[in-house]
Design goal:
- Keywords: ATP-binding, Nucleotide-binding, Transport.
- By secondary structure, the chain is α/β, with parallel strands linked by helices.
- The protein contains eleven helices and 14 strands.
- The protein has an eight-stranded mixed beta sheet with strand order 6-7-8-3-9-10-13-12.
- The two termini are about 30 Å apart.
- The protein folds into two domains: about 170 residues, no CATH class; about 90 residues, P-loop containing nucleotide triphosphate hydrolases (Rossmann fold), CATH 3.40.50.
């Protein structure tokens, strides 16, 4: 296999808050190949967006390495980082908040080109080509963001991200603010652009049905850690980590034959806090398979079968196939239960 486009190694991101030190990302290893889509899924508050922003150096990592085309972004000063930003872009969740309300659509798309020294004469031609690629009428070029529809704003957001012909785009919940019809259109657009341009996506989402439609591989994140990585096409058949299977059990309208889930809820529990991470496996308090080993030792992300890695002491045992109870969570912690829905 060729060297990955992006190679994240032992990445850690911590924040200081009035409540103490919050560990958002803790020892994450993840790779993205050129032209690949890796989806990062998990509950709100698990560290997905912090990981995405750290990859782009929109926030400083506490420790670890972020190798992009062999260059460690985590170790670069801002002066040396700027030239690489042509190849690293982000599509934000809320396009209205991400777009400058004072600038017309044309100026928004031209802005990254100007920052990277594209001659003025070439900017308009490049912007016009981008408008066509993302399906925006050229007649909208002088419109302000608030004068565009939600779908048009997100297409403009995508056009701006692609202006410098990046090799990697971090997509942070890019369709969550759109209705189902627009979600389908934007996902199809992202796939078409990837096929045409060869761009790689790190696609952040809480919606399993959305990432199934786009991803090549899926990485599942829980409380700052990657707990499972597997091919997207094997998600429903081969998911082995209890947390991944709990997420699948939360998706309405899906009932795989191999997944006989009980209808009765288990007793309420309290979620672990990112301010005081538990010893051992972080999922132990929610896992019906937890043993003394789980409470003592934190499992490493290890190969289970070709293309699949799991951080679970019991992933390879027959007990891992037992049904997963749906637990009712308390509100003691700010991390809510999964908000999953069929979107496409």
């Amino acid at each position: 296999m060729t060297d990955p486009l992006l190679d994240i190694q032992a990445l850690q991101v911590r924040y200081r808050t009035p409540r103490g030190v919050l560990t958002a990302v803790d020892g994450v290893d993840l790779r993205v190949q050129a032209g690949e889509t890796v989806a990062l899924i998990g509950e709100s508050g698990c560290g997905k967006t912090s990981l995405g922003k750290a990859v782009l150096r929109l926030m400083a990592p506490t420790s670890g390495r972020i190798l992009f085309q062999g260059v460690d972004l985590a170790a670069l000063p801002p002066r040396r980082l700027k030239p690489l930003r042509r190849d690293l872009q982000m599509i934000f969740q809320d396009p209205l908040a991400a777009l400058d309300p004072r600038h017309a659509a044309l100026r928004i798309v031209q802005a990254p080109l100007a920052l990277h020294g594209t001659p003025r004469a070439q900017r308009t031609a490049r912007a016009q080509a981008l408008f066509e690629q993302v399906g925006l009428p050229w007649s909208l070029r002088e419109r302000l963001p608030h004068q565009l529809s939600g779908g048009q704003r997100q297409r403009l957001n995508i056009a701006r991200a692609l202006a410098t012909s990046p090799r990697l785009v971090v997509c942070d919940e890019p369709v969550s603010a759109l209705d189902v019809t627009l979600q389908t259109q934007v996902l199809a657009l992202l796939r078409t652009l990837q096929d045409t341009l060869g761009v790689a996506y790190l696609f952040i989402s809480h919606d399993i049905s959305v990432v199934e439609a786009l991803a090549d591989r899926i990485a599942v994140m829980y409380l700052g850690r990657i707990v499972e990585v597997l091919p997207a096409g094997q998600l429903w058949q081969a998911a082995a980590h209890p947390y991944t299977r709990l997420l699948l059990a939360s998706v309405p309208g899906r009932d795989p034959g191999a997944r006989r889930l009980p209808q009765q809820a288990a007793p309420a529990i309290e979620l672990p806090s990112p301010y005081a991470l538990p010893q051992g496996c972080r999922f132990q308090s929610r896992c019906p398979q937890a043993t003394g080993l789980c409470r003592r030792e934190d499992p490493a992300l290890s190969p289970l079968r070709p293309g699949q890695e799991v951080a679970c002491h019991h992933a390879a045992t027959p007990s891992a196939l037992r049904p997963i109870p749906v637990r009712i969570l308390t509100q003691a912690d700010p991390c809510p239960t999964p908000k999953l829905s069929i979107a496409v």
